[in-house]
Amino acid sequence: MTDIKLLFVCSRNKWRSLTAEKIFSGLAACQVRSAGTEENARVKVTAGHIGWADIIFVMEKKHQAKLQQRYREELQDKRVIRLDIPDEYEYMDEELIDLLISRVSEHININI
């Protein structure tokens, strides 16, 4: 069985998506990456990220809209899931970790 490839996207790839990458990268049968939609993102999302991913988790509606605007073609057969996690948490914040685990587990099987 092939690993499922998860991409987490937020604005600057410093807090939310980077936290998600850190906590989910230990999952068996998963490969995990993260990126941001802003010009000043730590790692800026590219068409390559979209093509690589099996499931794309975005934190907010604006991230979903930016991806759709920039990568409409690449997103054709992709599953994009909005987690609705606002930008009010810092990297590895306990509440953020709990939210990520709770919301992501609604869509994929995770054992953390």
TrEMBL record:
This is Phosphotyrosine protein phosphatase I domain-containing protein. Residues 4-110 form the Phosphotyrosine protein phosphatase I domain. InterPro entries: Ptyr_pPase, Ptyr_pPase_sf, UCP029416_PTP.
